[in-house]
Amino acid sequence: MVEHGDVRVVHKGGSKINFREPALSTDSRFLLCASGESVKVFSTATEECLHALQGHTDLITGVLLRPSNHLQAYSCSLDGTVRLWDFTDGILIRTYSIGYPIYGIYASAKHEGVIFIITPMHTDTNSELFQLVAVHLPQCGEQLVEAKELSAVLSNISSNPAASAFGREGQYIVSAKPLQLEVYFFKKHKSYSFFLKKDNQKGGKNTFTCITCHPTEDCIASGHEDGKIRLWRNFNHRKEYTYSTLHWHHSAVSSLRFTPEGTNLLSGGVESVLVQWRYNQESQRDFLPRLGGAITHISVSPDGALFCTSHSDNKITIIQSCVKVSAVIQGLVKGDRIRTDLMIEPRSKALVLNGKPGHLQFYSLQRDKLLYNLDIVQQEYIHESGLEQFEVVMAAFDASGSWLATVEERKQKAPELELNLKLWAFDDQKQSFVLNTTISAPHEGRITALCFPHVSDGQTTMLVSTSRDGHFKAWQLAAPAHTEDEGPSWSCDFLGAYHSLVPECCCFSADSSLLAVGFQEVVTVWTPASWELLTTLSQPPGAVRDLCFGRLSCSKYLLGATTSRLLCCWNLLTCSLEWVTSMDVSLLLADPLSENMAAFCFEAGSTDLFVFKPGEPRPLFSHKALCSGRVTHAVFVPREVMLESCDEASQWLNCSHLYFLTQSMDLLTFITKAEEDKLTASSKQLVVSDDVAMTPFHLLLGKHRDQLENPQAESRLSVEPIRQPSSSAGINELLQMPAHVLPSASFLCSMFVQSLLISVNKPSEQNKEKEEEMESEKEEEDSDGEMESRISRPEHMPSGESGCAAPALTKEEVRELRRLKKLDHSWMKGLLD
């Protein structure tokens, strides 16, 4: 058995971008947000991801602009480090090692060279108590610096960064506990605490949820669970404090933020409405409704031109100061609503799964960006608890990506279950799926499985569904029955059953000549051509919950996972049980491009992974304790370029990636050491030796600059064949770059046109050897300069005739003289002697 060795599990796209409050640059051009183990830098104008700042080895818990340099930013992580970045160029400047997990970071222009972080208290072994610590950053030129000068400011605080804030240009810091507000004054080195009762007289909950401070005045705004906002004043005296109350939100206030001038206060919550309050004129309010999911964070750019809100559906909305949405950055939507399997859309290679309520989301793993949402239910979703609405519970693509089948159901009691089976056809003009057929009540019970045959030539005409009503149905694509119909539609072609047992799963063979349907403890094998029952396969007690055919050379095998913690393998040629092993398989899937199969097994509260070939008893790869909980969603993603790994532990990754969702909704994948080294090497090439960024412009213009500085190198290269413009990586990447990061066209025009031209002075092929010969004899020609001068201008020429130069020798004559000079004349000396 091969252990994981050089294969590592990493977050590869789809990470949360709403985990922590994002940061807007001073000029409102860039947005920085924590995304798993990296910091993503987006353009606020185009929504494109410009950089992914990578270097942390654990979850990033905070991103903050550096107060003394508006082009740099800090990031903190649970790996115990704080990193300083130049986010415009995507370059790591310095790493500060703290040594403790960091849950939040703060900074103030008044405290130069000092940052404030939230770390666990050292005396608490369970890490349930946290403290605010001031870290004095050493000033040195080293890349990795250990920060040793730490001093505690506040103890026993919340680990949520939204519960602490700086006030009045860094004169004090405020921290909120469930029912206590603590204010620490740096100049006095004194703190004041203010308390609230658990419940007020009207039954509202006074628990603090978030706080923020006015930038220029002594005012603290706090949000509470009952939807109220309190404005605290006169808190520099313990007994003379006052507060006023604002109330619009019907549920807990999740985020508060003052604008840089302090003229407006922004608030948001579960209503998904951004509320803008006029400071000191709280009766005047502006609203921006229907922003999507619940608002979790609010940020404001230092110049006040843009606001941004983070939402529970992994989205960031960029809003202009006039309270108008200007851009939306959508991440991968994950949550408890994921009911479908992870699927790959064959055309775009996008990851497809549940998205917004009633939608399927198409997400690009290569670009780590949402492509679009497909509305399946086509009904307005009402955000109200307890209201039963249609949800997408199942989906499947055919092999060519021409058809999509979806199942939607309304959660009600079994006798009143509402089901819809929809077939969607891909429209080449719209480049999206269009509804073709809707089948109401396709089965009398809940649908348990859905699959297309593996036909890759675009001739898919069949779909099979199984249901708890004891039947499986084959749906056929048929021509229109009447001439007035617009096109072909789907209808039921066959109804199958076996001894009144309930089918739980089904699967087509690799060549689509066989269909296996699992009826509880019996596996039935059918031929779709005539719908004849070919054979039944028995197995040890336990219902079959997952079936999968082998691929390529292992296509004769059929594997099934049972509820009795067994994995069985049948040989279809002998119709007998080939082997069986004891493991609790929660998910079984096959790589479409190889014989490899993956089995996720649940054991002792965690999931193990085994990769194997059905015909070999020894697993190719195993990974113990892959993650906590069960893995029920995974998919093989074919690679665009196959790897050529010879390492036994990573050969199974040569054809496809393996992505899987954990119970905590983290999208993970496997990466080989060779891939990781390649990414590391490419990141180190961001800066060349002369500290100039390696950009597409440098690839195009830098070569021209080097040729101007070194003409000899240009002359040596002039005899080489000129590459065609289509093969230039610089030109290709330049044409693919977003327009907002390109210089003006007038700047690039002359250089770009010159790079496309072919020199007319290119030497012909027949003279190439002669030119190379002359170049190789250059040194000899220099050493014999006197001789050549004597030949070209004889010494016995009279001085009076100095004005009349002798005719110069041609190149052919000079070359012939040089050849004669090289001849060995020593034999003549022997004759003379």
From TrEMBL:
Segments of skewed composition (Basic and acidic residues): 787-798
A GO biological-process term: rRNA processing
GO cellular component, one term: small-subunit processome
Residue ranges of every copy of the WD repeat-containing protein 75 second beta-propeller domain listed in the record: 342-665
InterPro entries cross-referenced by the UniProt entry: Beta-prop_WDR75_2nd (IPR057644), Quino_amine_DH_bsu (IPR011044), Quinoprotein_ADH-like_sf (IPR011047), WD40/YVTN_repeat-like_dom_sf (IPR015943), WD40_repeat_CS (IPR019775), WD40_rpt (IPR001680), WDR75 (IPR053826)
Subcellular location: Nucleus, Nucleolus
Keyword terms of this UniProt record: Nucleus, Repeat, Ribosome biogenesis, rRNA processing, Transcription, WD repeat
One Pfam family in the UniProt entry: Beta-prop_WDR75_2nd
Span list, region Disordered: 763-810
Per-repeat ranges for WD: 53-95, 201-232, 246-287
MF terms in GO: RNA binding
Acidic residues composition bias: residue spans: 772-786
PANTHER family registered for this protein in UniProt: WD REPEAT-CONTAINING PROTEIN 75
Listed name of the protein: WD repeat domain 75
